[in-house]
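re: ur question from yesterday

yeah so i grabbed the chain u mentioned. its 1474 aa long if i counted rite. heres the sequnce exactly as i have it in my notes:
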Amino acid sequence: MIGGGKRCSEAARRLRQRPDTLELAVLDGQRAEKQEDDQTPSGAIGEPAVTASTSSSTKKACWFQFARSSRNRRKRLHCEEDEEETENGRKACLAQPEGMNIGSSTQTIATPLMIGDSFYSLATEAPNPTGDPKQDDQEQYKQRDPSVVSESKSTRSLRRLSQLRRRRSSYYFSENERRIRANDKEFNLQYKYHNNYIKTSKYSVFTFLPFNLLEQFQRLANFYFLCLLVLQLIPAISSLTPVTTAIPLIGVLTLTAVKDAYDDIQRHLSDSQVNNRKSKTLRNGKLVDAKWSEVQVGDVIRLDNNQFVAADILLLTTSEPNGLCFIETAELDGETNLKAKQCLTETIELGDHHDALWNFNGEILCERPNNLLNKFDGTLIWRNQRFALDNEKILLRGCVLRNTQWCYGVVVFAGVDTKLMQNSGKTQFKSTGVDRLLNFIIIGIVLFLVAICALFAVGCAIWEGLIGQHFQVYLPWEHIIPKDYIPSGATVIGLLVFFSYAIVLNTVVPISLYVSVEVIRFIQSFLINWDEEMYYARTNTYAKARTTTLNEELGQIQYIFSDKTGTLTQNIMTFNKCSINGRTYGDVIDLRTGEPIEVTEALQCVDFSANPHHESDFRWYDRTLLDAVRSNEEHSHVFFRLLALCHTVMAETVEGKLEYQAQSPDEAALVAAARNFGFVFRSRTPNSITIEVMGRKEEYELLNILDFNNVRKRMSVILRRGNTVVLYCKGADNVIYDRLHGGQEDLKARTQDHLNKFAGEGLRTLVLAERRLTEQYYKIWRTRQQEAALAMDSREERLNEIYEEIESDMQLVGVTAIEDKLQDGVPKAIANLQSAGIKIWVLTGDKQETAINIGYSCQLLTDELADVFIVDGNSVEEVEKQLRQFKESIKIYNRFRPGGTEALYNSDSNMDPLSVTMTQTSVFMHESSSPPTPPPPPAISVVTFRWDDKNKDKKGGPDSAECNDLFGDEKRSLDDGAASIVIDETTGFALVVNGHSLVHCLSPELEIKFLDIASQCKAVICCRVTPLQKALVVELIKRAKNAVTLAIGDGANDVSMIKAAHIGVGISGQEGLQAVLSSDYAIAQFRYLERLLLVHGRWSYYRMCKFLRYFFYKNFAFTLCHCWYSLFCGFSAQTVFDPMFISVYNLFYTSLPVLSLGIFEQDVSDKNSLEYPRLYTPGLRSELFNIREFIYSVLHGAFTSLVLFLIPYGVYKDGVSQNGYILSDHMTLGAVVATILIVDNTAQISLYTSYWTIVNHITIWGSLVWYFVLDYFYNYVIGGPYVGSLTQAIKDLTFWMTMLITVMVLVAPVLAYKYYLLDVHPSLSDKIRQKSLKKIHSRASSDVRRTPSSRRGRRSVRSGYAFAHQEGFGRLITSGKIMHKMPQDFAFPLGLGTKKTQALHNNLASADQTKASNSSGHHMGNNNNTNQRHNQNQNHSSMADISAEGRAADAGGSGANDDISPRAPCQDLDTINL
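ran it thru and got these structure tokens back, copy pasting raw so excuse formatting
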């Protein structure tokens, strides 16, 4: 077996090295066949296989010999896979293409992969009896195409070649591939591809009624009442009219159906708007406007600048000369930075010529529809050539074309097949936890009723058999009951009574419960819509509840999953502060106090109007920097000249106005800042950069761009002007500080202080440096760089070494501080939500550094965290190893407590938080050799988010909230509670997971370990995740943690996450309305989520729980009276109340008070709800309504019903009034019990109500009066059977004394228990209501500036260098592909680069390099200058020193040296044209 594997590997290696020569063999055979006769000996077919040297004698045999040898080679390659595929059936597949460079294009020749015995066999055929495989191949070939036998061999060879190409393009594609032919509608229709019509709605006109009813009857309550309605239609067993159940049931179904119809109509309108968008489509050689829904697979469509892509298309041609176009993918991944796409070189020639595009008939073989946004594999077959297709040539639906006048593409995926729709997920039916609990409770109630009915049925049968049979004169049996045999008759009576009691006792769960629930939710939704505190005036947007069924779920959120771009941030970068030569700028100082003034809109900004190129929206408040620039201060000029030159920004003039197009918003902000201060970037070519400095134009020769990547974390440009060559570099602080020369410790120390200050304010910092180069050194370095670029082995490593060499011994210039503008109030909202016990996860498509930086800015991450874990492994093993290390770190931390950990932090602050070894594990392992010292007592209390048996709360639910001890003992005072909150926020861990690592974390073997670590982390950030991965993370938490989740986002990339969560919140932001249209609630800003949850969510949950507890209480108190009465009526299902009273009890007598309770009830005000986030905690634990609370309400109702019935029964049994009237009649007893029940309900709900409004007063006291009015009207006006019963009863003092005693007996225990809790175990809301205590703030206000932590080892995570930047733009610039003109159109001015520069520095190769040791007392965060280099001649200088030299050199330096070309040298891999 081992030997077989070795042979298979060797065969695979030989096969990779062998060029595929299938078509070449056919063509070579044509020349040899000219020497042969027209007839082929028949015996040649049956001869044994010959070698390659003798195969020319039999050309047809050569053909099949080649086929058979090809088959054998591939069998050796696939080994056992070939046998399995043969058993499954013979079919032909397309082998993986092998590419080779032909000119500037990539031509790919693919060969058919043999599976089975036949070369071109598409079906199973009979085996060859001779057993000769070669003869079998030839016979099958002749049967398939007999004409080849009679034709000449030359013609047959050509036909074979044509047949090969035709069949390859017609038959040989896998079932896992998709085949499309451009501009061929009939051809594409045979595969029945989806059109571009989008449907997100659930119903149509014809399917609405059945589907909606089916969905509604999935609720057990609706199905239960439908069964009761059927039973009430049977007269023999029903003592109540069916109307009492039919009308409420129909009302509930109608109300819900209207709401669902409204929601679905909104979806239809949204679909219609998208489907009716216009797209320019090529039809019959002409460009016509077609609806998006009419676009078909294979159509060629045109996109104009700033237009959305209608479908997933293969890019054919663009307005740019190199086939480039730029797109914005905010709808897909949330990133607003531009991305470059490039079409095939061969299709660029099509241009915008409609005839050529209409005649384009290329065939595309590609993968089937999937949800992978960053992957596409396909092949284009055109003009008998094959071209490889990848993701760089595909534009996805939802992207926006930017900075490109037009482009054309052929539709590959349409409609639901597009990657955007594949990631959108399905619309799920959402229900709240209260709904699910009610369904469970209803099952229990039904079982309880069945048991009670069965017990009463048995009791009735026994009573009828023993006693009832003797009273048939007064109580005759029904005619359907057998009277001959008493036991049989009693049994039948008992069976009928079973169903009678099922109808009588159904009021335990009346249909009015669901009517009331829907009404409460409906009105609560309007309260959310009308909240002025969630109104965003800038866009005139109110909060909107797009569903009315999930309000109370807002009060039980345990996990929040948030997008970043457009949700937490505005995605607007602003140049906020800077440090130049050790001096900081940007703060406005109060001259009287010397303290910084808070920058507000009211503060007057610096006037830049003297600069003709200034931007009107640029804001800067520190005038000292502008004064320094205008006074020609040297260091400030160097600073802004570097910003204007070291970048990859493109400039263009639009309507006479200079505009910048940057790949990342960071670079745009920096170049814009330089522009406003007078250093205007004007234009660039592949070998030059032109800027304007204070009105004077300066042109620089661009020698090299050392591009940015995630490893380097820096970018450099090498420029020449006149006689001087200079390198400008910008990058992350820890990276640049490692590469500075010695002798500038004081400058670095002051700049480090500024870095710490900027980082503490949450700004994205960037360090700038420069280095002067000698011409001789640069030439030597340039030669070595080209050699490394041309190396075949270890090219990247060698290039990195070359870059490291020149990016050293640099002079520190300064620091920039960019603010990625958060939405207003985000830090405060996150702080309060975390204080409420809610865990917040950020799921973003941005890069890791960007996500971490925003985490610090919004205070989701803080410097006080014990550690930030980063999971970035590329394999399952690496991820598992990292998770294991992190778990050990948490264990060690929990053992040693923060006191011991602090010392370890201070002892080793050289840790880079962005590295894989970011945990404290390595630190503790390093210290393990020394004897451990006992840690000091913990200075703070550490609270971990963990749920175990020893601290499980008796009231709590499942492992969901994980916040049992989050707020400590409830007996503590509010002041103590405040301290615990602050302490909790300053400890703990955070977890950062990359997208490629998240794939492994979500796998079954690692998800438990991942969840174990994530559950103990204060915050989790997942970066570089796809939309589908967002949904998978949400589903994992829902499934594994049984937690209530909320997802919030603003773009189409968040739709799947929003649909997957229990609650979906959409932000009507800059990325469109896709998230809003798929959401349950819509808000305008993230900060409104705090009020939505802590106020409306908590109130809704509190109100609904109080409503349900009281509702079940009053209904059990009402219904169980029948049970006690059954003991005295022979279990005959006789009701104690008037049937009309039973019908209207929940509808007229008790509905309005309980509705007012569910709509207006408040325990504390909205202000206190926001000020005390801990009030949200009971919802996390489902404390206000659960099985325990339900049982308590049932027992309370049972006790009330027992007292309600027994006291009046004891009083009125054998009772006689003062007038001598007998009181012991059934109707009088029923009227008295019913009246006392209404009075008790009024008293109980008065005790339940904490927040009295005019509506509460009207409904509570009005319902009591309404009872007497309706009773009089029914009995005296309509003529009810109980007429006069209540009137006679209330005339007697017995009634009033009975009512007073009964109500007192019922209310006294409730009052006693209520005051006991208030005095002994007061809740936080009780304390807030009863006492005026000192206000507690959950954490420091976001307005207070955060001071940098003493653990400066993690400051570099705020390094803000172009985090949205992508590698590769430097090559596009220097190769000229990104330009509007071809590279040969650029000729650098002859004055530049033609004169040798004088030596500014000594030879760096011979310079002494000294390693600077780390100073333990140095206050810098990284202490990392381990490879500092000292250049004794390195003096600070600027490009301003070169200005005069450059102008002089322009005049007369062209012929100084013949070996220097007037054109900039080729410095890029694309230019070298490997």
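noticed a couple things. The longest helix spans residues 1088-1126. also The mean pLDDT is 74.
anyway ttyl
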